[in-house]
Amino acid sequence: MAGSDMGLASQSMRVGFLRLLALLLAVALVSTAILVGSAEYFARDQAKRQMAETARALSRVLDGDFARHEALLRALSQSPSVAAHDWEAVDAQARASLRTPDAWIVVGDRNGRQVVNTKLPRGAKLPVGGDPDWIWPILDRGETHLCNLTHGLIERDIICVDVPVIENGRAAYYMSVIMRPHALQPLFERQRLPDDWYGSIIDSKATLVWRSREPTKFVGRAATDDVRRAFAAADEGVIASVSLDGVRTYAAYSRSPVSRWTFLVAAPREQLDAGIWSTLILAAIVVTLLMLVGGIVAYRWGRRASRGVEAVARSAKALGAREAFAPPATRIAELDAIGAALAEADQNLRERDQALAALNASLSQRVEDALAERERVLAQLHEAQKLETLGRLTGGVAHDFNNLLAPVMGALDLLQLRHGTDPKSGRLISAALASTERAKTLVVRLLAFARRQSLQPRPVDLGALVLGMSDLLQRSLGSTIEVKIETPEAPAVALVDPNQLELALLNLAINARDAMPEGGPLLFRVVDETEDFVRIEVIDGGEGMDEATLTRAIEPFFTTKEQGRGTGLGLSMVDGLAAQSGGSFTLSSRVGAGTIATLRFPRAELPEASFVPAEAIPEPIEPGRVLLVDDEEMVRRGSAELLEGLGYQTVQASSGAEALRKIAEGPAFDLLISDYLMPGMNGATLIAEVRKMAPKLPVVLVTGYAAPDLDLPGISILAKPFRQRDLAISITEARNLAAGL
User: Fold this and answer.
1) Residues 593/544, Cβ–Cβ less than 8 Å
2) Contact, 84 vs 182, CB < 8 A?
3) Mean per-residue pLDDT over the chain, rounded
4) Do both 575 and 534 map to the same domain?
5) Which residues pair with 671 in a beta bridge?
6) Does the residue 657 lie in any domain?
7) Parallel, antiparallel, or unpaired for β 625-629 and 595-602?
């Protein structure tokens, strides 16, 4: 067959039209006779089919409109403004997205409170109304809800498309496109139904939502019984019915597959039934005449058609080559429509090319922004890691310095006990001990900076604390900064960790220095504020901050300093200390007027001090054998000297394993003194093992850090470095605690 087809000669359209005309003339009379018999049924059936196809197409168009609104809502619900609950921004986005007067966007919560309503002017009071309880389970599943015709809070008759805004696995808000029924009128206008036909949109409850003819008269009316029965029987069909206004009609209906709403197209029966026979008889006569006349015009029309087809073919070829072309004017409707469609397709392709180019440019910008943000975050992380590394280094140095300071302080303490009566020697030893006490304070500050001490709030005289920092502040800030301190006459006592507070004040002072590159005054003012709070103000005369910077100043990693000079963590750490202490931290500033940093802490009372002579050392409860465990030989030897000075017999061990071996070998010990941080087995593990062997053995745990959180009762904690008096007091405490076990 293929070879036979290829052998046939091509012919022009004009010759084909003439041959077709001849054939039509031959069968005209026969076809007219057959047409008369079948025309009545055919014409009516054709009209019904057209009505059914129209109803089916419009039901799909209706689903498409609802899907478009759903897509708009889904996109809007993913907006960052929705996640941030920035409803003013969401309102602006919603108004920009939907500009038709017959539809508006509403956002509301589960309590019926609306937070966005583009129907109302901005700033207007939004209505409150509860939604049916059965809607929320649908939204909780993330599904879209299409409501049937109902009464709204603002408009009487409305329809709506609802999508959920999911938070924490459930719908926290609904987002709706609410429409008047009149919003469906464009569906009918685009379809252009014949004058005598009318269309109706009926929701899933068989209620009339809109009608192309006299719509407002019938909106909200239930469909007639015969229509409802037809709906129940099938999703599509054609029935003979009576309209709501009493007209006998043929009605074609089609239920949309998604929304389950029904589009109904109806035409009067009289229009389809009347005049069929007279029209067909006349048509039989006219057909013959037309065939004869057609022979005259066939050639000319065929020539026009062939030229039109050629013009359309050229346009299609130009479209394929992406070349510009004008739609052909053939004066043949179908060919002109094809040409117009080709021109529209060309325009759409050009618009899509432009949109794609814009999208590529936008994507490139977003990639650049994302890379810049990544670099910024990496820089912040690098600064935080440097700070963490510095903290670890500082903590390690402080720990090692503690181990070096412990035997020095112990030796000086013993020398004072033995030679303190000599005036000259006593002065020298007292001066050396005072220096070790200052070194001990310095180590405490280093440990606070390294975050190696837990928060230990206690009653502190803030005025005395700030005055005690004056030398440290002046040395840290340099000669260009004039440090001033104002304190009340009476003690201003607050409950706070003094070491962490010193670090916070030093942090604020350094920030103030950076804000005064040319130098200037820096005031520390302690104020006895109220019955409940005491405050410290740090006031500088620096550059100050604008409103935007002030708003973000306390945020972690936010800094205005150049890269490498700041981590953005200082003020957030100060704020964290105030919050953990039960107080607050605030900043006030104006550009060019300096900054005031205010720390508030809960008021406290200083404990009553009991007088204990500086050199008073408790006598041992009873002499005994002490097992002293420390991995540092110098610290261990110094501690042993202090113990022997108290009258104890000392057995030394350099590790936890050696200590356990000595306890197992015997004889029994009366006291265990162990360092906390040791390689292999730390002090806590050693104590736990010793308690299995000697449950009531008194224990003193020595540490250079904060007191560890141990689940071991009856332990006395002794901080490095210590003097003989501190050791004696801790031993007495350990024996008393062990007696209560």
Assistant:
1) yes
2) no
3) 79
4) yes
5) 626
6) yes
7) unpaired
